Target: Nuclease
Amino acid sequence: MNRFASVRFRSRLLRVATLSLLPLVAVPLSFGWGDVGHKMINRLAAESLPDDVPAFLKTPEAINEIEYLGPEPDRWRSPAEPELNAAQAPDHFIDLEYAEVIGKLPRRRYDYIAALTAAEITHPDMARQLEPDKVGFQPYITNEVWERLKAAMRAYRDLSAKHEDTKPVEAAILYYAGWLGHYVGDGSMPLHVTRDYNGWVEKENPNGYTTDHKIHGQFESVFVGANIKPEDVKPLITPVHPVSDEWDAYLDYLHRTGTFIEKVYQLDKDHGFDGAGTPEAKQFTAERLAAGASMLRDLIDSAWIESAQPVPEWHPAEPSPAKPKGM
Model:
């Protein structure tokens, strides 16, 4: 085989090998609660919306749409869209152990980024862990999407009052509600609020928890998909409880989720998530999914209630004082 033929052969061989690997590369990894869990959370939340929300939100078509959108942000996490993946991957989690080095979290994303950046300087031993994209933006994307939903609901009220076509804004509301559901669902999963998100990383591990990088997907995707059904979760959904301050209520929700981090590791150690699992693991998982559905239902309802409030007037910055003449 001459040199030219040899190069062509190697090139063809490399191309065949690359094409054979594409199906493996193109399959996205499981994130959040996986497809099954996120759809379940969104559907159960939509089905349990109270009667005070607009009627279109409770139609079978709307419920199906909200359900479908449960896994939507995970569909953006593919190597086929690397820039999109890199930009929004931190929206799915927050490592509370690192985030709260700055104290009480500010309400605005860029204030949070600034505070973490300053903390990198004052805590040089933790600089790598305190990089904002490593800590995560979970409550920020949730608040931002919730405010989008509220704004769309306000537009719906305005159009309805004028007896104008509301179909376009109804589509926007369904999209925002479904999109919101993904992050609220992530927030009910204990491994989305901790640095120990996929194996115990703390130096002290007296209980011998797993350090393998398998627990995350095994719990939220494999186990849920094989063992948890809507009928397991629905009876555990709490009564409707609209929140008055979305930001504070959501942070309380994340902290509540954080109290179950070690419980996940304990159940894993007891093989609770293996195969058909144990009754304790199934009950715990159903409770976590129900917590996500309950919070999502309450946030959608709260967005509708808050959308009726008058919009505050803009308060432009005070004009700079005029310079004295002669300066």
